[in-house]
Amino acid sequence: MGQVGWKGLCLSLFDYKTEKYVVAKNKKVGLLYRLVQLIILAYLVIWVFVIKKGYQDVDTSLQSAVVTKVKGVAFTNSSELGERLWDVADYVIPSQGENVFFVITNLIVTPNQRQKTCAEREDIPDGMCSNDSDCHPGETVTAGHGEGLEWPGPEEPFLKKAEDFTIYIKNFVRFPKFNFSRNNVMNIKKKSFLKSCRFDPKNPYCPIFHLGSIIRWAGSTFHEIALEGGVIGIHIEWNCDLDKAASECKPHYSFSRLDNKLSKSVSSGFNFRFARYYRDKDGVEFRTLMKAYGIRFDVIVNGKAGKFNIIPTVINVGSGLALMGVAAFICDLVLIYLLKKSGFYRNKKYEEVRGHEDNIPELGLSEHSELGEGLPDQPDEPEALHRNSSLKGNHCMCPQLLEPSR
Fold first, then answer.
1. 286-334: per-residue pLDDT in tens?
2. CA-CA distance, 156 to 167, in Å (whole number)?
3. Bridge partner list, 169
4. Neighbours of 168 (CB within 10 A)
5. 372 — alpha (psi -120 to 50), left (phi > 0) or beta?
6. Do residues 222 and 215 lie in contact, with contact meaning Cβ atoms separated by under 8 Å?
7. For the purposes of burial, counting CB atoms within 10 Å of the CB of 199, is it exposed (0-12), middle (13-18) or buried (19 or more)?
8. What are the tens digits of pLDDT across the range 132-183?
């Protein structure tokens, strides 16, 4: 490449190139173009900015702490345990304060169990011994439990009063990105408020929940879940718009049955066994085995907080402007491929421009080259003037204005 070529290349870096626009006088395509633009604009305004709040910076790293307390007493009178008054220490397992706790509603009691040698049941694998070599001393049998009886379950819940128990749930949340903290208890100084209030959808700032109401809100009945047990989720959702007042950041509660209540298999419900040990006057240990059915409560906390930030706002606005190009792309496809006069519009949109060397033969200049004559600066003949009047600049042909046939 010569010096002139390098100079032209360097100068071309400072050229400004602009697009050529073709105005198509077609009402159908014009209507389609505005309709697509309107749909994109509605999506940006309604969905991105109003519903999803695309102008906000969002913090989903919620930090949460849950404190729970159950209150209520129940009186029972059974042949196994006699008359007994049950309080929180008896029917809540594990101890209070966790976001997962269990309330006993039904109980099967096997009193006065003592350890002794006994035969295994015949239907237990590896439970039958034909001789001494089949059974080794000190080794347990897989799935074995010794000779025993099948205890039928009661037809009524053992702790009927559990339906009237109350659950106190206090939830603290913090969004570290914005250093914003909140809790679900109304900031009042009256101590009597917590003693008298009960949660309902109209009173979301009362953290005292009626156990029977939670079960109904979860879509179940106390009698059904109390007999065989179950798992209920207490969901607390925090969606905080920090562009508003802090008092507008409120918890939203929902309740659901987490175990498969429709399944009637051996694994349905929720229960476990525990024992209490004693010694008789001779010092021999015995125990009372209890199979407890009840309700496991899982307190599940989720949430997010949002606050205005210029960076996501600019990003979403820029994405919206770029998305507007979809309208032009769709209309171009319709205009140059789907319409009846698509060939005419295609020729107008994509104009072919020939180079300097390609234009010389068309202008009849090859004859002058063969004769060694240069181009006339000022042609004398009127015909030549008319022929060369279409030349402009570097011998480029000016395109004629074409209109589609009516």
1. 888 888 899 999 999 999 999 999 999 999 999 988 888 888 888 888 8
2. 23
3. 68
4. 16
5. left
6. yes
7. buried
8. 666 666 666 655 555 444 445 567 788 888 999 999 999 999 999 999 999 9
Strand (E) or helix (H) holding 240: strand 230-241
CA distances from 285 to 29, 59, 82, 140 (A): 93, 57, 21, 21
**Cis bond leading into 154, ω under 30°?**
no
Alpha helices in 268-381 (DSSP H): 310-323, 325-333, 342-349, 356-362, 366-371
DSSP 8-state assignment for residue 337: I
Alpha helices in 134-278 (DSSP H): 192-196, 211-217, 222-228
**Rounded-to-integer distance, Cα 334 and Cα 331, Å:** 5
- Distances from the Cα of 230 to the Cαs of 105, 136, 223, 255, 357, in angstroms? 10, 40, 11, 13, 88
* Start-end of H helices in 161-303: 192-196, 211-217, 222-228
pLDDT of 335 reads 83
pTM here? 0.68
Q: Around Cβ 78, how many Cβ atoms within 10 Å?
A: 12
Distance, in Å, from the CA atom of 207 to the CA atom of 194, rounded to the nearest integer, reads 8
Radius of gyration of the chain (CA): 43
Residue 185 per-residue DSSP state: S
Q: How many CB atoms lie within 10 A of CB 336?
A: 19
Domains of the chain, each with CATH number or no CATH: 21-55+310-363 (1.10.287.940), 63-115+153-308 (2.60.490.10)
Place of tokens 């307190």: 299
Q: What is the mean pLDDT of the chain?
A: 78
CA 359 – CA 334 distance, rounded (Å): 34
Residue 5 CB neighbour total at 10 angstroms:
9
Could you tell me what percentage of the chain is helix, strand and coil, using 3-state DSSP and rounding each to the nearest 5?
Answer: 30, 30, 40
DSSP type of residue 85: E
